[in-house]
């Protein structure tokens, strides 16, 4: 064996997905009931403004099933590089969702209007600015995101 070759073969993303998705569906049925609709995780798309919020919402909805699937022996047996989830993996998405919801609301309001008028811009901008003000409870991640969003306004 060449000393530069890795000791373990890390599965490709597609192979890993094919391996984990059936387990994720199985865990959803066990945790949420057999009559639920199976959901995939959503991946955000840079060209879709609200896809990051959609991704976080789905992750939090499925978080118990995701954790159970990643901890299952079937998944762990086939790979050696799975990190476990911790409290920050839940708290950060919850906080970021709260941060992104006003942006989705503004996007939805402007998208729903047949003929958006300038009179909507000022109140909607004010809504965003108010939601981006620092709060003592903000995590470092949320503080940095608020600052970046506010500066880009």
From TrEMBL:
Top-level taxon: Eukaryota
InterPro entries according to UniProt: RNaseH-like_sf, ZnF_BED_domain_contain
Designated name of the protein: Zinc finger BED domain-containing protein 4
Species of the source: Larimichthys crocea
Record lineage: Eukaryota, Metazoa, Chordata, Craniata, Vertebrata
């Amino acid at each position: 064996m060449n000393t530069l070759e890795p000791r373990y073969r890390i599965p490709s993303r597609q192979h890993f997905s094919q391996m984990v998705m059936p387990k994720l569906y199985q865990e959803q049925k066990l945790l949420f009931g057999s009559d639920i609709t199976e959901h995939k995780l959503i991946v955000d798309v840079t060209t879709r403004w609200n896809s990051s919020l959609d991704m976080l919402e789905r992750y939090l909805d499925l978080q118990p099933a995701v954790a159970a699937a990643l901890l299952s022996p079937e998944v762990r047996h086939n790979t050696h590089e799975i990190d476990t989830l911790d409290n920050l993996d839940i708290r950060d998405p919850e906080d970021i969702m709260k941060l992104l919801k006003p942006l989705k609301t503004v996007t939805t309001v402007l998208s729903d209007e047949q003929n958006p008028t300038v009179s909507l811009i000022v109140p909607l901008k004010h809504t965003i600015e108010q939601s981006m003000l620092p709060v003592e409870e903000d995590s470092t991640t949320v503080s940095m995101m608020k600052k970046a969003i506010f500066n880009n306004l």
